[in-house]
Amino acid sequence: MEGKGSKKLFALVGKNISYSFSKGYFTKKFKDLDIKNSEYINFDIQSIKELSSKIKENKNNLKGMNVTIPYKLEVFNYLDKIDKKALKVGAVNTIKISKKGKLKGFNTDVYGFKKSLKPLLAKHHKKALILGTGGASKAVAYVLEDLGIKYKFVSRNPKEKKEIAYNTLSKELIESCLLIINCTPLGTHPNINDKPDIPYEYLTSNHLLYDLIYNPSETTFLKKGKEKGADIKNGLEMLEQQAEKAWRIWNK
Question: Which CATH number applies to 4-107?
Fold first, then answer.
């Protein structure tokens, strides 16, 4: 095994990420592929301002980073370059570090979401509701636009033109938007009884409910959909696909 000094480091940048998908995923990947000179660590920071010192501490070994909640937007100010697609999406979740130490931002959520959603779509999935307005919802919106699916964001504090409030979700609206995607953290372990505040009684077997959460594997949001006969999907495949895409970017 190579010495610690030559170890390639990859990291997840986020807040309160002790239970991190990425660390477990890449640690297992390195083991399975017998990659001995790479390690994946967490940069668990309370403010994005701490990022520069984390990079400085590890500058000789750090090759790439994933970015998660709540820094997918804030990280823009720390990058030297941003990939065209990530710029259009307005969120970065993958960073490649060049030999000269330059940081370039990418968005692999788009790839992961599209790859996992597309096989589930039927002709009647023409309109969608995106629950939440954070960084992940921007990647979701980008994919829906690409697929020609009309969408509205549902927000607790609607500000933009395409945003509506939860209390405006009528029977008519739920019945016309047959794809509903949860991009909020509501329902994540350990708060597994939480769920987005939508009128679940109007869901039908024509609905497709997609939850970006993967822990638990079946959130209350998805359970409620299942009870009504809707198709359901959690965010695990999306995460795996975006992680693989990030790995390809780092190793280009």
Answer: 3.40.50.10860
